[in-house]
Amino acid sequence: MNAPSPEAAPGRIVLLTTSHRVAPGLLSWPAWQALRTADRVLCADGAHPQLPYLREAGIAVDAASPTAEELVDACAGGRTVVVVATGEGEPALTDGLARLAGSGRVRMPELELLPASYDLPGARLLDLVQVMDRIRAECPWSSRQTHKGLAKYGIEEAYELVEAIEDGDRDELREELGDVLLQVVFHARIAEEDPDAPFSIDDVAGGIVAKLVHRHPHVFGDATATTPEEVKEHWLRTKAVEKQRTSVTEGVPLGQPGLALAAKLASRVRTAGLEVPLPHVEGIGYELLALAVRAEAEGVDPEAALRAAARAYRDAIREREGRADKEHGDPS
C-alpha cells in the first residue's frame, strides 16, 4: 500500500491561546515547540503583547487574519500553521472551521487547541483592578464617589455576606464575597487619587501580606503552635507589640453592633486573664451585657444567636399571619 503523497496530507492547525494576565513571553515548552516547528505563524492582532517576544526569539509572525477556507488551504501539503489567538480568542475563525468540518466537503487538517500560558491562582483579580480603573474614569456615578459616600455600602455588603453564610447558600455566598471584594478595590482606587497620602490596591495587599507573615511565626518562622489557642496567643502577642497598646480595649471599634461589642470586650478580658466583674446596675442594657459575656464564654456568637432566634420569630409571625388570613377568609 502506497503512502499518501505530501500534497495529499491535510496538515495541521494549532490555535495557540495565551493569558493576558501572565507576563508576555512566558510560554509553555509545547507552545515554543509548536512555534519553532511551524511552517507559518499567523496573528490577527498587530499589537498582540506576545509579538515582540516571539520575534525576539526568531519566530516570523505574519500579521494576517485568514478566513477558515484560507487557513485550510495554507495547510495543504502537510504544512503546520500556528494561529496566535487574541485575548478574546478567535470565535469567527473557529466557527468557520466548524462549519467547514460539518459540511463534509472539505478534507480538514488536524485541529489542535494549545494553551500556551495559564493563569495563576488569583489572576482574575487583575481583571477586577482593570475594570475598576475604567469604571472610575468613565462612569458618571463611580467617578464621583468618596470613601465616606461608600462607607454605608461596605456595612450593607458585610451584613449580606453574613446572611449568605448563615443561610448556607453557596451561590449567594460567592456573589456576596464578590460584592465585599468590590468595596475593597473601589476604596483602594479612590485612595490612589489622594493628593497628600495616596496608596493603591498593591499597597493594601502588600500590607496585609506582611501582617499575616509577621503574625504567623509558626508558619513562616521558627515558632511552634499545635492548637488554635496557641495560634491565637501568637497573634495577640505579636499584635500587642505592633500596636504598643496600653489597654486591652484599644482597637475595639465602638461603632459595631452592641452584642458584638460586648462579646469582643469579654473576649479581650478573658484572653488577657483579667478578672473584671460586670457592673451591678439594673436595666435591660446590663442584662444584655451579661448575656453577651456569658455567650462569649460558652463559645457562642451572641449576634449570630440573636439573628437565628429573630429568624425563627419571623417565621412564627408569618405562620400566624397565614392562619389569620385563612380565619378571615382571605382568598390569597
Automatic annotation (TrEMBL):
Domain of life: Bacteria
Chain ranges passing through the membrane: none
Domain NTP pyrophosphohydrolase MazG-like: 145-220
SUPFAM superfamilies in the cross-refs: all-alpha NTP pyrophosphatases, Tetrapyrrole methylase
InterPro entries membership: 4pyrrol_Methylase_sf (IPR035996), MazG-like_dom (IPR004518), NTP-PPase_MazG-like_N (IPR048015), NTP_PyrPHydrolase_MazG (IPR011551)
Pfam family, one: MazG
Name of the featured protein: Nucleoside triphosphate pyrophosphohydrolase
Protein source organism: Streptomyces glaucus
